[in-house]
Design goal:
The complex is a heterodimer. Chain A contains 11 helices and 13 strands. By secondary structure, chain A is α+β, with helices and mostly antiparallel strands. In chain A, a hairpin with a 5-residue loop joins strand 6 and strand 7. The mean pLDDT of chain A is 89. By secondary structure, chain B is of the alpha/beta class. Chain B has a single domain, classed as 3-Layer(aba) Sandwich (Rossmann fold). A 6-stranded mixed sheet of chain B has the order 6-7-8-3-9-10, with helices on both faces. In chain B, strand 9 and strand 10 form a beta hairpin. The two termini of chain B are 23 Å apart. The chains are: A alpha+beta, B alpha/beta. The complex binds adenosine-5'-triphosphate (ATP) and magnesium ion (MG). Magnesium ion binds next to helix 1 of chain B.
C-alpha cells in the first residue's frame, strides 16, 4: 500500500514524461479493446445471421451431400420418411431439395443452385412466404446480390434448365416474385428459391430432400439415414475468417503495445540510472533494496493503471458513440463470401475487457520490473554518491 | 563519556578494490562513542570521514574488524536487519540534503515513519513536532524547490530527528550553506542533542561546526591522529541557544 502511495506521488511528480507514456499506453489499450470489440461484434452478428438464414440449429445431411462439390447433388437426395417426416410435420425440421441448374437471364448463362423450400416454413429467415403459388407461374425468390449480378428485377421472367432424376434436361420459365436482402452472401449469390413441392415435381423427386434444417427448438437427435452437422461444423468457414482477422489485428496491436511498453522500459532504465541518489536516500531512511525495487516496479506498472483510467475517459464515450451508430462496412467486404452486415456494432465482452486489462497491466509490470533488478546490485554508498557506471 | 558506549569500533580496516591492488581508506581504527555525544570527525579530504560514517550507518561493511552499533555488529546484519537499524535508530543528514523533490516538506519528514507502524494522527503529531524543532512548521506544505538551502537542511534535520533516533550521522551538513545558516543549523542540532540526548557524529572541515563540538577526532590517511575532548568552557555549547 505504501509502495502504491509513494509510486503514485513519484509518477505524478515526474510530469510530462509520465503523461506521454500513459497516453501512448492508453491509446494501445483503447485500440486493442476497440478492435477486439469490433471483431467480436462482427462475429456475433455474422453467426446469428448465418444461423438465422442458412444453417439453422444444425442440419441433417444426406450422407452423399458435400456442400463444396455441386456434382454430389445428383445423388444426394432421399425420401423423407419415418422420424424425419414426423419432425417435418411438427415444424421441427425444414426439408430442402437442392439441384444444380442453369439460368438464362437475358440470354446470358448463369450457373445457379435451385433450392426447394416450403413457402410456409418459419425456421429460416428466408422470406419464403412470397413463394405461395399464384397465377400458375413458377414463383422464384432471389437475393439482392443475385438480382444485381443477373440484372433481374421483381416480376422478371427467367428461363431455368435442370436435370431430372434420370439425368434428362428439362427447362421452364420462373418468375421473380421477390428479392430479399440478407447479410449472408452464401444464401444469396447464385441461389434461386422455388417452392419445394414444385422442385420435387420438376425433378421427379417426390417427397425427397437433400438436407433437413433443424429448428431452434429441436434438440439434436440421431435420425436414421441422415448425417447430423452441428453449427460448429457449418460455421467453420466463418470462424476461420474471424480467426484470421483476429490474427492479423493481433500483430497490429501487439506492435502498438510493444511501442508503449518500450517507452515505459526506457523510462525505468533512465529512472534507475538517474535517481541513484534517491535510491540511496530511500535505503538510508530504512528501506530494504527489495522495497526500493518494489517501489520502482509499482511506479512503472502504475503507468498502466493511469492508462486504463485515461483510456476509459476518452474510450468509453467514443465506444458508446460508435455503438449507437455502428461502423459502416465497405461494400467490398462483402466479396469475402462470409456474413457481414452494412454496419457492425462492436461487442465488448467482460472476458475480453478483463483479459485486455490483465495483458496491459501484467506486461507493463514485467517491463517495469526488469530494469529495477540492478538496484539489488547497487551499493548504497555508491547510490548515495550518485556515481555508477 | 558520561554514558555507556553505544558505538564501538574495534580494529576496523576498510579497503576498496581498485584497478590493481586495494586502497586502504581506514586503517585499524579503534573508537567508542557514548550516548549524547556531539562529536566531529575532521581531517583533510580523503582521510576516510565519510567512509567511517557509512560503516557506522550500516550502509557499508568493514573489511576487517568490527563496528558495533547499538549492540549490532554491522557486518553480521542481514539487509533487512540493517534497514531496520537505520529506520528506527539512525538519522542521516547529507551535504546535499537529499530531499525527495516530488514530496512536500511534510511528506519528506514523514517518510521514515511510513516504514514504521504509526497511526495517521501519531505521524501527524510527530512530523509537526519535528518541524517545530527546526522552525519550519509553516512550510509543511511547501516543496523542497521552494525552500532556501538553509531551510532544506533544516527539513533534513527534522527528517532525521522525527523518529527520535539514538544516533544522527551528518556528513558535511554545512558545506553548502553560508555562515549564518551554518550557525543556525548547528545550533539547532546542538539543542536537539541536549534535549533528546541524541548522539551526533559529524564529518566536517567547517571551523564553524567545530566551535560547537564536544569531541574532535582527527583523521589522517585513514588513521586516528588525535582524539580530543573539548573542555566545556571552550565550546559554544554554553551559548544560550
Ligand atoms: N567506493 C570507493 N571505491 C574506491 N575508493 C573509495 C571509495 N569510496 C571512498 N574511496 C576512497 O577512500 C578514501 C576516503 O574517502 P572518504 O570519502 O571517506 O573521504 P572523506 O574524508 O570523506 O573526504 P572528503 O572530505 O573529501 O569528503 C578516498 O581516498 C576515496 O578515494
Ligand atoms: Mg566525505
Amino acid at each position: 500500500m505504501l509502495a502504491f502511495k509513494l509510486a503514485f506521488k513519484n509518477l505524478i511528480g515526474a510530469g510530462l514524461r509520465t503523461w506521454l507514456n500513459v497516453s501512448v499506453l492508453s491509446f494501445a489499450f483503447v485500440v486493442i479493446v476497440f478492435y477486439n470489440g469490433m471483431l467480436d461484434g462482427w462475429n456475433r452478428q455474422g453467426r446469428s445471421d448465418t444461423v438465422a438464414w442458412e444453417t439453422g440449429n444444425g442440419q441433417y445431411w444426406h450422407p452423399l451431400y458435400d456442400r463444396y462439390d455441386p456434382f454430389s447433388l445428383q445423388d444426394a437426395h432421399a425420401t423423407v420418411t419415418g422420424e424425419a417426416a414426423k419432425l417435418v410435420k411438427e415444424n421441427q425440421l425444414l426439408p430442402m431439395l437442392i439441384t444444380q441448374a442453369t439460368a438464362y437471364p437475358q440470354g446470358r448463362l448463369l450457373n445457379v443452385m435451385l433450392k426447394g423450400i416450403d413457402p410456409n416454413q418459419e425456421i429460416l429467415s428466408i422470406p419464403s412466404a412470397s413463394l405461395k403459388p399464384q397465377n400458375g407461374e413458377i414463383p422464384a425468390l432471389i437475393g439482392k446480390r443475385m438480382a444485381e449480378s443477373a440484372h433481374l428485377k421483381k416480376g422478371d421472367h427467367v428461363l431455368v434448365r435442370w436435370r431430372d432424376v434420370n439425368g434428362t434436361f428439362d427447362a421452364r420459365e420462373v418468375q421473380v416474385v421477390d428479392i430479399f436482402k440478407s447479410n449472408v452472401p452464401t444464401v444469396d449469390v447464385s441461389q434461386v428459391y422455388i417452392p419445394l413441392s414444385i422442385l420435387q415435381e420438376m425433378t421427379g423427386m417426390k417427397d425427397e430432400a437433400t438436407l433437413l434444417v433443424a429448428s431452434a427448438t429441436l434438440s439434436s437427435t440421431q435420425i436414421k439415414g441422415w448425417t447430423f452437422k452441428d453449427t460448429k461444423f457449418l460455421l467453420k468457414d466463418f470462424d476461420e475468417m474471424i480467426n484470421a482477422k483476429k490474427g492479423g489485428s493481433r500483430i497490429l496491436y501487439l506492435l502498438l503495445l510493444t511501442l508503449a511498453l518500450l517507452a515505459i522500459f526506457d523510462t525505468q532504465v533512465l529512472s534507475v540510472f538517474r535517481r541513484q541518489k534517491e535510491i540511496g536516500t530511500y535505503i538510508a531512511l530504512g528501506m530494504t533494496r527489495l522495497q526500493v525495487i518494489r517501489l520502482f516496479t509499482v511506479e512503472g506498472s502504475m503507468h498502466s493503471l493511469l492508462a486504463l483510467i485515461l483510456g476509459s475517459l476518452y474510450g468509453i464515450p467514443l465506444m458508446l458513440f460508435i455503438n449507437k451508430y455502428g461502423i459502416p462496412m465497405p461494400k467490398s467486404a462483402d466479396q469475402a463470401g462470409v456474413a457481414i452486415s452494412e454496419r457492425i456494432f462492436p461487442f465488448y465482452s467482460l472476458g475480453m475487457l478483463v483479459s485486455t486489462i490483465l495483458l496491459v497491466v501484467i506486461s507493463a509490470t514485467i517491463v517495469s520490473y526488469f530494469p529495477t533488478r540492478r538496484i539489488s546490485k547497487m551499493r548504497p554508498t555508491d547510490a548515495l554518491k550518485g556515481k555508477m557506471q | 563519556m558520561q554514558n555507556s558506549d553505544i558505538i564501538k569500533i574495534e580494529n576496523l580496516t576498510k579497503r576498496f578494490h581498485m584497478g590493481e591492488g586495494d586502497f586502504t581508506a581506514l586503517r585499524n581504527i579503534n573508537l567508542a562513542f557514548g550516548k549524547g555525544e556531539f562529536t566531529g570527525l575532521v581531517g583533510p579530504s580523503g582521510s576516510g570521514k565519510t567512509t567511517l560514517l557509512n560503516i557506522i550507518g550500516s550502509l557499508d561493511n568493514p573489511t576487517e574488524g568490527k563496528a558495533i552499533v547499538l549492540g549490532n555488529s554491522v557486518s553480521e546484519l542481514t539487509h533487512k536487519q540493517s534497514a531496520v537499524l537505520r529506520n528506527f535508530h539512525i538519522g542521516f543528514i547529507f551535504q546535499t540534503y537529499n530531499l525527495l523533490s516530488v514530496y512536500t516538506v511534510f511528506d519528506n519528514v514523514e517518510f521514515a515513519l511510513l516504514l514504521q507502524k504509526h497511526t495517521v494522527t501519531e505521524r501527524q503529531k510527530m512530523v509537526m513536532e519535528a518541524l517545530d524543532w527546526v522552525g519550519l512548521a509553516d512550510k509543511a506544505k511547501s516543496k523542497p524547490a521552494q525552500l532556501s538551502g538553509g531551510e532544506c537542511q533544516r527539513v533534513s534535520i527534522a527528517r532525521a530527528m522525527v523518529k527520535r533516533p539514538e544516533i544522527v550521522l551528518a556528513d558535511e551538513p554545512s558545506a553548502n550553506l553560508d555562515a549564518a545558516n551554518s550557525h543556525h543549523i548547528i545550533q539547532t542540532m546542538k539543542k536537539l542533542n541536549r534535549e533528546l540526548n541524541t548522539t551526533f557524529i559529524f564529518a566536517t572541515h567547517d571551523e564553524k561546526v567545530m566551535l560547537y563540538l564536544d569531541r574532535i577526532i582527527h583523521l589522517k590517511d585513514g588513521m586516528v591522529e588525535k582524539d580530543e575532548l573539548v573542555p566545556e568552557s571552550k565550546t559554544k555549547s554554553h551559548v544560550s541557544l
